[in-house]
Amino acid sequence: MDMDFLLTQKMRMGDEKAVEAFVTKYYGQILRYCRLRIGDYGYAEDAAQETFERFFRNFSQYRHYGRAANYLYVIAGNLCKDFYRKNREIALEELSEEPDSGAETGAGENPEKYLEIKLAFAGLPEEIRETAILFFAQERKQKEIAEILGIGLPLVKYRIRRARELLRNYFGDD
Question: What is the CATH number of domain 123-174?
């Protein structure tokens, strides 16, 4: 049986340990996703926390149709889009560049590599960036990305192919 389904059933019955297990399971993934989308750790952390707050605020209406992570990514993606709508004037250079720990960045012990990857993603067009982050950084399957973004699988495949081209140009052919 699906582990997410079991967790959500336990959460519906008021099991606090199930809530804690759910948040522990997905918080790091959602934080890394927000970090790559937004760029600033503080804002990304706020967006990740808001993602879970919204999930639990509307939990009574939540219906489990697959992976709960996909639903969390939809919420987080919308929050990241809202961030950009509200903060268009924040330039990339103004965002904090403090190195994060490997667990938070997903870059292990190499903050310079993480910064380079972050800048590469930031240079992608928005719709391609979102798909690229989900595919390359979050290692989501193409079908999951289509569900998260509410687009067709052929469009996901096109965006991934285009992201590969643009990233290859950014990093060079190696």
Answer: 1.10.10
